[in-house]
């Protein structure tokens, strides 16, 4: 290998330039071999078995040089410890998209455009974190220590992994730790790192950031999709339309739904309470303004329905919603530090104090049509003019009848 190229390999700062040199070097020698001006000697560094110099063969030469320097106690070309070959192979075998694998490869080589890294490369930039605008932005802070990203790790029950990786002093150590995790956690961690990098770039460009709870749900859903890669596909049977189910005898079911318009931050809520015969006992709807997000509207709907059931002395209820986030907020403490944490806490306290039995249930949208229609009515109400009906509300008779109708045999 030429002396000038050997010097380039001594520093990770010049790896991108070095890759360009490899390409030119490959094209030059390939042209010389094909035109007959040069024969490929068996000892030429970087030539493959066919006698052709390629970028892939040059990369293998670079990796071999790194391994030799590391065994002699010298620093590798990209800084830090040298990852073992099986770790590199393990990185490319992770069951995720190619762009996430490439992101992890860049992370292992410290080539992400983090502000502290740009400053070390001679650029005059503001080194504060793009997301929190408080601390210097390096990999350890952005991905593990930023106050905005910590709740996302907690929501996914990955707090222990966050702390462990946050204490590591090299990106390659983080990648090696990720490769040792169980598959489900591994996919959640790599998806979190990738989506948080995307979120950071969105905020850098001036876009509005997403709530941590929304990111957590998106990460969990994406990781579940990656988990299914390679598994045998089961052919689904004929779909049966799901219907609203009556509660058991002596139990009342409260169906709740919220409506939210992101442009105006206003919306509505609606609830319907039915007995074990499917008859409407109480229903209500109302307008709400200054909403933070759709989850805020969903929780207000649950709170209003639960409050009305408690006032009527009902002591065994099922609260049914078509929002998985609302169900999670009322069942766990995952949203305690979120912006809607106060509403979730008040609603949980009301549930615990007012009922002998209160069960939370999730239902698909088609089983929650009555509450959905009432929430739409609530949007059109004036402020502080909530609606309440004892019995059947006007305009939803067909929806209620459809819920309790028996299927044709």
How would you explain this protein's 3D organization?
With 409 residues, this protein is an alpha/beta fold. It has three domains: 3-82, no CATH class; 86-227, no CATH class; 252-404, Nucleotidyltransferase, domain 5 (2-Layer Sandwich). The chain has helices at residues 3-8, 15-34, 55-71, 85-92, 98-108, 115-120, 139-145, 150-155, 159-166, 171-179, 183-204, 212-227, 294-311, 324-331, 341-354, 369-380, 397-404; strands spanning 252-261, 266-274, 280-288, 316-321, 357-362, 387-390. A six-stranded mixed beta sheet has the order 5-4-1-2-3-6. Helix 13 packs parallel to helix 15 (341-354) and helix 14 packs across helix 15. It is elongated and about 85 Å long. It starts with a helix and ends in a 5-residue tail after the last helix. The relative contact order is 0.08.
Q: What is the fold's blueprint, element by element?
A:
Layout: H1 3-8, H2 15-34, H3 55-71, H4 85-92, H5 98-108, H6 115-120, H7 139-145, H8 150-155, H9 159-166, H10 171-179, H11 183-204, H12 212-227, E1 252-261, E2 266-274, E3 280-288, H13 294-311, E4 316-321, H14 324-331, H15 341-354, E5 357-362, H16 369-380, E6 387-390, H17 397-404
Parallel strand pairs: 1-4, 4-5
Antiparallel strand pairs: 1-2, 2-3, 3-6
Helix pairs in contact: 7-9, 11-12, 13-15, 14-15
